[in-house]
Amino acid sequence: MATSTTPALTGDEPTGPPPAGSTPRRRGALLHRLDLKGAPYAFVAPFFVVFAAFSFYPLVYTFWISLHDVELATLDVMQWVAFDNYVELWNDSRFWNALQNTITIGVISTVPQLLMALGLAHLLNYRMRGSLFFRVASLVPYATSVAAAALVFTMIFERDFGMINWALGSVGIDPVDWEADKWPAQVAISTIVIWRWTGYNALLYLAAMQAIPADRYEAASLDGASRWQQFTHVTVPGIRSTIVFTIVLSTIGATQLFGEPLIFGQGPNGVTGGADNQYQTLGLLLYEEGWKNYQMGRSATVAWAMFLLLLIVFLVQRVVQRVRSRTS
Amino acid sequence: MTTSGSLRRRAVAAAAAVGALALVVGCGGSDDSATGGGKKDGKVTITMGLYGVMGLKETGLLEQYEKENPGVDIKAEIAGDEQTYYTALQTRLAAGKGLKDIQGIEVGRAKEITDTQADKFADFSDVPGLDHFLPWKESQITTADGKVLGLGTDIGPMAVCYRKDYFAQAGLPTERDQVAKLWEGDWKKYVEVGRTFKKDFKGKNVAYMDAASGLFNAMIYGSPEQFYDEKGELIYDSNPVVKQAWGLAADAAEGGLTAKLRQFQPGWDPGLANGTFATAVCPAWMLSHISEKAGPANKGKWDVAKAPKGANWGGSFLGVVEQSPVKEEAKKLVAWLTAPEQQAHVFQEIGNIPSSRQALDSPEVKNATSAYFSGAPIGRIFGAAAQEIPDKQVLGRKDGTIKDTFSQGLTLIEQQGTARDKAWNTTAERIEKAVG
Q: Best of A263, A294, A296, A298 to disrupt the B interface by mutation (most B CBs within 10 Å)?
């Protein structure tokens, strides 16, 4: 998940006096003006140069590739097919299956994750001994690599000798084939995502909660609000913008879900998201097209479909917001 | 204050812009050696990219070469799974970056490499003394215009590995010649024995075989043509061999004879260690995997019997990439590693069957036995199986991918309970996608 610092450097200097009219000072004045007007651009330039090289150019080039038939082994041989790849993708049942899986895994991972993060942040917000330890501990899963986490979870969810089936067996429940069956597989993958991101989101919420002025809680308690009412009426509205932020981040993350199912499936099944594509996400479909079938054109098409999908989600969100603000 | 402040600001701004540019430009440049190998201070470094258990590092051959050739330093990177390895190799070939001086090539990929990547590999046709290989082996890695892209390491003649203790419990014979008699000449009989095993086995949670895909591979690789014909046309959907293999593998899957495992994936390994299946169709190179994963606790419980029919599943080559700065040194190393003596050494250590005719005929290979597999005469069994391999084997561009797709199709029947016709259709659709 990329985080970028906003390059807000404009306007931190007081505007200089208007340039004096005398000729010998004009050159200096020009430089001075250029300095004032130009420096902010120079400061933000690095970000945009890097953005152009590593985001914008790949984006455009990916689109260019998606209009061709290209194989990975022979990238220099491109055959123009216009929008054929897009039409093919639209008619491909695997695409709709992957889209559906992306959404269902996204929902069963994001919703519990954010709710649990909210609860965890609320608990961490209490005064307690060793709070620093708990805060650091909650961030440890986030610092673990996807590969390591997914691999360990894969062993835990293993069919014949995994820990979970062993535990289920000890209370008399039949073993679950966590990889082969659709919903167990999606739940298992969501578990990995939830484990990794809950602590991170909890810390974001915690930071926002600590910015809520204490007198609001005092006022609420004077009005006779219970702990729960304080939580729902003071805390949650107070961190609303952070909640929106985490929802946006989680949605983007869910759309791009890739590493967890890839490692969870292991080998060929990872690439196709299960023998029956039962947990193939859009990210995995992209990978299958590009690095199993070696069809870079089709792979690029999936990439652009994912991008367009995010744009649509963003637009819908904006429209809903505008309609809501107009009605209120 | 203002002047010095703005001066510093300007300097910082300029530095930042330059820094950003340098960052962008820096990514375009490349380091001295694209492969990590090279010559420095009279020392030669050769890098290798390998997969699975090819036995070059595991049996100490690389160390031996370093000792015999002072000043040579070999760095081998070994990926576990060949599919993962090949995907990375494809990406690196396309990018021209991250390649090693020496790259392993599996036979399922040989056709694709010779068809599309020939210019990226060095030619071995000028290396003297290469006539010790089996005649069909080197032709698989030779391009239409005679460029030899690699030298053969091992081949994959097949046998059946079985657990003697489980066979005894099911009232079946345990002695390897008698076991071989049970299914002599026909894979159908192998499945029939499976039905008897399932009926008569007293213990619980033991399947007859590990995976339907192993049986499928064994059957198709006994035929000269599998998925492609000689003209390079796809014939998998009309080839009777593929249909038969699919049918019998599906019978085994539907009959509950398999442990529903996926070969070479982590679920398979604990299956070996805990003995959840009684047989596995095993190419010679699989013996090292079984003995390693099943572990010392199961030593002497396994044995090897002749397969119903001879077939070649797998085997590898070593190629040298054209852009390697130490091309000649790397070719020399490859020639040494694949020479008869070294192939015989690998066989004796871990059981990979030589692709060198000369090594196959040597007494140390012919008379070899495996202590792990109850003293089975693996030299004799696999040597005989190697004789049965069809002299002509038609390879196709996407052989490896199609094989994996079929394995997955059989998984559909085994694990998802999909009807076999539906699984076949899904497989066919996926193959259409894969061949582009």
A: A294
